Amino acid sequence: MKIGRLRTVLLGLAALLALAVACGGEEAATAAPQQPKAPQQPAPAATAGPAATVAVPTAFIAPTSRPVATAAPAPTAPPEQKSAAAAGPSGKITAALSSIGPRNYELNQLVWPWNDRNQFLGMYDTLFLDDRRPGAASLLNPSVARAWRFTDTALVLTIRDDVTWHQSKYGNLTVADVIHSMDRATSTGTKWTRAEAFTSNFKVGEIKQTSPNEITLPWNKRDLRWSSVPRDITLQSKKFFDEVGPEDMNSTPMGTGPYKGIDHQSGNILRLEATEKHFREQPSVKFIDVLDIPEEIVRVAMLKTGQADIIQMGMPSIPAIKGIPGAQMLMGPTTGLDGAQIVPSGQYYQTKAEDGKPTGRTPLTNLPWVGATPEKGLKVRQAMSVAIDRQTLVDTILGGLGQKHYLWNLGPGHPRWTPELEKKFAIPYDPAASKKLLAEAGYANGFNFTFFIPSGLNSTLEQVCQAMVPMFGAVGMNATVDRSAYSSVRPKMLARSIDVVWCWQETGWSVDPDVLYRFSTRAVWNPGIEYDKPLDFETRILSTSDPEVSWKVIIDEWLPWFKDNLPSFQTVGFAAPIAVGPRIKEWPMRVHSNRWPMDPYLIKLVPGK
């Protein structure tokens, strides 16, 4: 059945399901346990059984520190264990997501969140694997890079020689393929957001092969992101590229992962088939159909009818999922919480870039939240921040399974958050104070503004952001909502010309300090905010090899500056589960993702289903 017809058939069922939830949802929501307010120890890897009742998951918090980056010994890969039975992979499952993304397979042609798709779905391999499961030997694990070591001048990788391409005529992956993949991912005009982090850490033009299975990456300005960027580069065949060219390379899935892409119809379906042999993981499930189903209520109905085994879901759908016999909501290990961040763009205050050259940009002072003077702009941003009733968002949209949040990266629920920090940095709900601040800034009668809520990325985010519209309106800030796709607005972010207030799915907080950038000229991607001071903070946070030093800068200097200047602000933090049907027996994913069926090669089905 075509997806369009299936969607039409299911809409009627979805309406009935919505009515049932509306009638019984309040009781179900009340029965859901509250998300703990204190930090948790890492929980066991997610598994699922055929039980008819559902335990609503809470955020599983990863360790608060990572191995020190200067450790010299090269890690040795653990004994490899194949995950499928000797008979090989069998069966088929269906996953329904809000979008499968474009038919692009070159990393330099993929914007977030599509740049994660090809590795998360297991079609392409990377050099390292991130493993946040309790008991994991390390957060960073060998994959195509069998081992690595550090010198004063370079990162040296040892590449496996038994990694085979999906098209066997191209043989095995080589060092030349790895270097080619790095060159392409960081090429001029790349859309890969983390290209800047890679070129900051490594001298790309000097990366070279230093033995048959060894590659040397000379340091540029090494920082805490050194591991995350090689981990995120999907590896591609140089021979294939040379033979077919960039256009066909981009449209043809051809990697080395446990699954290979066999069909991709944008806006419709992506079909995967398990490879018979893989150096690291042997899938248990033979085929996976990933469907493009934008409407969440339809995805829930598909899970209920058995049309889907896995669905992307938002927090408001928890009562409906609880009403489906045999369904479960899974949370793999997380590195933190997602967050709904309000970004008042146009704050281009940084006059010189990192290289000392003038930026050529000035603050967009016609915008109320930037203001004729910095002081007036700050008052408007403060007015916006205290107009948000965070607790109501947690209690209603998130069903009690979330956290209030205030500033950037560090907040309630974080292992490092303390009552003292709560007292110092909490942002209250105070509509009277909001109106007073607006009047002081010259907007006693309020103002109208465009509120950009990107569509198709995260249903929880969209509903949280939409719920803020009447909160802004209650104090005189009247929002006209723009529901455009994120990809349509991204070029303005790259050009530093975005001029709206927007609601973004940014990390509410993370156990890693290496994501603290966004507020200077350093990053390729920018939300519309550039200040001089964050460049100094970012440099010191990232340049040390000791995360404890980074966290001290964050807590003692970054957060106070952030509160005093409020370039943006957080509202709530949450971790949305992924829902599965009764056919899924277990799924010990290494890292949680609500956006993609992460590590599908680890899924095992209930026998006979």
Task: Walk me through what this model shows.
It is a single chain. The protein has about 600 residues and is α+β, with helices and mostly antiparallel strands. Among the domains are: about 70-80 and about 100-260, Dipeptide-binding Protein, domain 1 (Alpha-Beta Complex); about 335-575, Roll (Dipeptide-binding Protein, domain 3), CATH 3.10.105. It has 16 helices and 23 strands. The protein has a 7-stranded mixed beta sheet. It has a 6-stranded mixed beta sheet with strand order 15-20-13-18-16-17. The longest helix is centred in the first third of the chain and has 29 residues, at about 5-30. The chain is globular. Residues about 10-85 have low confidence and may be disordered.
